[in-house]
Amino acid sequence: MPEFDWRSPETYQSLQNAGITDIAWECLRRNVDYQRDYEAMIVNSPDGEATPEFRRRWGICFRA
User: Fold this and answer.
1) What separation, in Å, do the N-terminal and C-terminal C-alpha atoms of the chain show?
2) Measured CA angle at 15 (ends 23, 6), to 5 deg
3) What's the whole-model pTM score?
4) Closest among 5, 8, 61, 58 to 33, alpha carbons compared
5) For 49, which DSSP code?
6) Helices (runs of H) and strands (runs of E) counted in the chain
């Protein structure tokens, strides 16, 4: 795992222009339960699309 100095402003440089959805995604993708559910969904979803249950559980909404 990479080491970061949480006290260093450089560590957070990429978040300077991040929107709320970017920050939400960063939190979600690090969630162990989300990772587990995502892996299960990929295995069980024949077309690779997010299932309604997965979307509901994680509050994910895809917009074009």
Assistant:
1) 34
2) 100
3) 0.67
4) 58
5) P
6) 3, 0
Residues of the chain above pLDDT 90, percent: 22
The answer to whether 31 touches 38, Cβ cutoff 8 Å, is no
Under 8 Å between Cβ of 28 and 18: no
Tell me the CA distances in angstroms from 18 to 11, 53, 62, one per residue in order. Answer: 14, 28, 18
Asked if the model's pLDDT at residue 63 lies above 90, the reply is no
Our CA dihedral for 35, 39, 45, 50, rounded to 10 degrees, sits at 20
pLDDT tens digit string along 16-37?
Answer: 889 888 888 888 988 999 999 9
The 8-class DSSP code of residue 59 comes to T
**Rounded Cα distance, 53 and 5, in Å:** 37
